[in-house]
Amino acid sequence: MEEHGVFAAILASGDNTFKYYSEGEWKVSTSGKSVPIINPTTRKTQFKVQACTQEEVNKVMESAKNAQKSWAKTPLWKRAELLHKAAAILKDHKKPIAECLVKEIAKPAKDAATEVVRSGDLVSYCAEEGVRILGEGKFLVSDSFPGNERTKYCLTSKVPLGVVLAIPPFNYPVNLAVSKIAPALIAGNSLVLKPPTQGAVSALHMVHCFHLAGFPKGVISCVTGKGSEIGDFLTMHPGVNCISFTGGDTGIAISRKAGMIPLQMELGGKDACIILEDADLDLAAASIVKGGFSYSGQRCTAVKVVLVMESIADTLVKKVNEKLGKLTVGPPENDCDITPVVTESSANFIESLVMDAKKKGATFCQEYKREGNLIWPLLLDNVKPEMRIAWEEPFGPVLPVIRIGNAEEGIHHCNASNFGLQGCIFTKDINKAMLISDAMETGTVQINSAPARGPDHFPFQGLKDSGIGSQGVASSINMMTKIKSTVINLPTPSYAMG
Ligand code: G3H
After folding, report:
1. CB atoms within 10 A of CB 175
2. What SS3 string covers 118-135?
3. What is the rounded distance in angstroms from the CA atom of residue 242 to the CA atom of residue 161?
4. What is the DSSP pairing of strand 467-468 with strand 263-266?
5. Does any ligand 1 atom lie closer than 6 A to the CB of residue 301?
6. SS3 (DSSP) at 321
7. Is the distance from the beta carbon of residue 235 to the nearest atom of ligand 1 less than 6 Å?
């Protein structure tokens, strides 16, 4: 255990099985069962996590509810101080956490380290922003509304919701966990985390950093286990007062089942990249490769369809192919650009989209190649609307190009999608860019850059099947609070002026 340092406490046994975190303690589930985590590169079991029971979930919920009451009364500056402490511990332990990310989700080594640092920065920023946002309220007077005298003063402040349930996805198990944890905690909520199976061990390490920072017991908890056993049980639990979820269309099912509680949902995307004739094609090609292929396309904000004007399509496709040829393909430990996708079923799904496109006549710019979960980068040109890949999200290193005759066709394709997360436009004409941006039904439009969530304080939201609510530090703090008003009723004004 010596080599695990401070993280020895979260290990259940020498065989890489990890505990769950409840009531401020690391515990082994009474189920006696565990859930295996398969390394996407070796396709062998890398780690195991506890298969928590519904009773254990009940216990976690109860302690979260009890702890929240005194946590909400803890002075805001003290809550911020603890978050700053957790952020520093997280960044100090970037190496072991990044190593877990590499093994669990095959994130390239450098990107894994970046995720941990970005997460520490997010936690600190949230503490700072929380102190400002929550340190202010409003003062309203009644006589601005017709028929009223100045006899009522209304004081408002933001108060916590209670227990927030956070469910992050596999692709950012640390960063998209803290993007929910930090706003919830600074606002005085307690937090229950259900990490994705793939990514759970990285998340457990991150939670231990909060434990080491000294958060009171029950303020943060983390349960692991099978979705079939505790998934619905958690999301429909009467003790949950808010759900913040990032992931696929499971989020739609959760939204239908959840009770009358605020929901923050970040689901899929089919981010369109519209390239006009006057675009800087070197910039566009570089952005398409970075936006479409970083972390092997497994980002909700990845460029997922290129809509390029026919007159410049050949030149753009050539430039993109040149850059794709330079990407390294292999294991995440070697910091390759393209690494194995997260599961075999993901790889099979990606392959099914590729084969459908092949059958329907798409032009393959590279030969399709797959070994295990590793899929070589592939650009598909001349994709047509009848191909599944024109609409579905591969979440892999495979990108369709659709040639368009005018900007309206691009806007039409973007808006015909069920998704509406982000989109981007490449042009030198800012007026056209603004008009197209206005016409695109997406939560964000990037002008002359690929879609992206960060910097993490920017608002981030999707329309349609891409989600509910807005994320980003300030948006999340606001979403995880409610307004509380106190009205002072005065007698009819009687003091004489002067
Ligand atoms: O996968 C969804 C993430 O929110 C995308 O974040 O744009 O920082 O990669 P990113």
Report:
1. 24
2. HHHHHHHHHHHHHHHHHC
3. 7
4. antiparallel
5. yes
6. helix
7. no
pLDDT of residue 289: 98
Closest ligand 1 atom to residue 452 Cα is 7
Q: Which residues pair with 484 in a beta bridge?
A: 157
d(CA 427, CA 278): 6
- Mapped onto helix, strand or coil, the DSSP state of residue 219 is coil
Q: Among positive and negative, which fits the CA dihedral 123, 112, 210, 180?
A: positive
The minimum-distance atom of ligand 1 relative to the CA of 266 is 4
Whether the Cβ atoms of residue 456 and residue 125 lie closer than 8 Å to each other: yes
**Gap between the Cα atoms of 389 and 364, Å rounded:** 13
Does the beta carbon of 452 sit less than 6 angstroms from any atom of ligand 1? yes
Task: Tell how far the Cα of 450 is from the centroid of ligand 1, in angstroms.
Answer: 12
Query: Around Cβ 276, how many Cβ atoms within 10 Å?
Result: 22
Residue 495's pLDDT is what? 74
3-class secondary structure, 69: helix
Give the pLDDT confidence score for residue 1 in this predicted structure: 45
Burial of 6 (0-12, 13-18, 19+ CB in 10 A): middle
Positions in the chain whose pLDDT score sits under 70: 1-3, 493-494
What is the model's pTM? Answer: 0.97
The tens digit of pLDDT for each residue in 208-252 reads: 999 999 999 999 999 999 999 999 999 999 999 999 999 999 999
* Residues 6+ positions from 229 with CB-CB distance below 8 Å: 51, 52, 53, 54
